[in-house]
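input
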Amino acid sequence: MEIDEVLPHEKSDIQRSQPLIERLKDAELYKNPPMVAAVAGGKYVLMDGSNRHISMKSLGFRHILVQVADYESEFVELGVWQHIVSDWDSQQLLYELKQIDQIEMRAGWDASAVAQILLRDGPVYAIHAAADSLPERNRMLRQVVSIYHQNATLYRTPLVDPAQIWSLFPTGFALVMFPLYQPPDIVEAALQRAFLPPGVSRHIIHGRALNLNYPMKFLREESSLQTKNAQLQAWLQRQYAERSVRFYAEATYQFDE
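output
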């Protein structure tokens, strides 16, 4: 589809997108298509793949190959990633956060907070912000995440057990946890350009296409969208005829990302 018809709902992650841009410049194969959901007006909200999307836009691609899923179907689940902050200093992190206007740091857990921070050495802080709307809340969260995104190494994880997290990330010193979002929140964030911080929403999509290995030359061509979709359809037919497509119903781990 036209790359401008795809609307991101979150800020891209420069720590991930910059290396991806370099790889895409000379890539011969297109591996994992971004996931999108149709919304009103002929647009599509990007559920997963914001770094691939912004990387291709930066490189001047007019078209992007995506996989479409119905947001309201049983094949899509929406959760959140936790952020592991590494290779920096916990006291410096707390100091920088306290400098943000309209942010208040309170000791202890609080379900009404826009985010919670658990430090490796034990203390927990709830981050409160003067935010009466989704765009305001997302704006404040972007400010919070930008503090450690600019100064530390950011990892995302679905894990919630601190003992397990600290053993897997020995340089991590803080775990940042976010509240759950609902699909209408994601759609609103995309349509209003009220972006979430990078790596907060976590879409679990059953039946997604991975390791497509589609020739990048077809995407680089200056041909029409209709021609490119005809090429894609013919390529898909060959893949099925050659029995190159396999469906894994079970959950899997991939170590080649």
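quick obs: The first strand starts at residue 6 and ends at 7.
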